[in-house]
Design brief:
Radius of gyration: 19 Å
Number of strands: 13
Strand order of the largest sheet: 1-6-7-8-12-11-10-9-13
Strand content: 25-35%
Largest sheet: 9 strands, mixed
Helix content: 10-25%
Order of helices and strands: EEEEEHEEEHEEEEHE
Distance between the termini: 42 Å
Number of helices: 3
């Protein structure tokens, strides 16, 4: 069986190359396809240690996948810095039938809409001075204050989603754990983006650990 891994970036243009290795009666096809940074590797290859320009930890993504087999694809052409005039960037990661998406936007208007955002949440999430919402569809939206010269209320928004955390489709006996894993991924990505990429004032004071969910998982929202 073969797993294909495709990694898409903006910088690499390389020719296609094919290598076929036959061992006894077992033929293992290893096809290395590099186009916009795409590669194809054997099924034994694990999810890369880092994804999305180094801002997403691979083991956290692996935990959100229901299977370790199938085609693996990463598309992060404009993450975390969007191509103008867009102010948002997205990284999409797929393994088999499962998809995890990470996106960010700056500046974002969440600071002025805090009450409305929290009111419309299936569950609220807070993390120090960061706030946002958790949706039963399997998505987290978090805003981190990141004041700028022109907008003192500006925020960085980070949005994540995972098929395995979607309560409409995911198995009832695994969806809570997948949701917690998604929340943990959101914290990891948000911390790194706000501190290392956007360099938001005050981002170094984000608490240790992960986001607080209200009401907690396992309780009726």
């Amino acid at each position: 069986m073969k797993m294909e891994i495709h990694r898409t970036t903006e910088e690499n243009h390389m020719p296609r190359r094919n290598a076929y290795i036959t061992i006894g009666v077992v033929a293992i096809a290893v096809t290395g396809t590099v186009l916009w940074g795409q590669g194809v590797f054997d099924v034994e290859t694990k999810v890369p240690e880092t994804l999305c320009g180094g801002y997403v930890e691979g083991d956290r993504v692996q935990g959100l996948m229901s299977s370790r087999e199938g085609e693996f694809r990463e598309d992060s052409r404009d993450f975390p810095k969007p191509t103008p005039p867009s102010r948002s960037a997205t990284c999409e990661i797929r393994l088999g039938d499962d998809t995890v998406v990470v996106g960010t936007r700056y500046p974002s208007g969440g600071g002025a809409q805090r009450d409305e955002i929290l009111e419309n949440a299936d569950r609220r999430v807070t993390w120090g001075n960061a706030f946002g919402r958790l949706k039963d569809e399997g998505s987290v939206l978090l805003y981190v204050p990141c004041p700028g010269k022109e907008d003192p209320d500006a925020t960085v928004s980070v949005v994540t989603s995972a098929d395995t955390a979607n309560r409409e489709y995911a198995p009832a006996n695994t969806v809570d754990q997948a949701t917690q894993d998604l929340v943990d991924l959101t914290a990891q990505v948000t911390r790194k983006l706000s501190q290392k990429h956007f360099k938001c004032k005050g981002a170094n004071t984000l608490p240790k650990g992960t986001l607080r969910i209200s009401p907690p998982l396992g309780h009726t929202s």
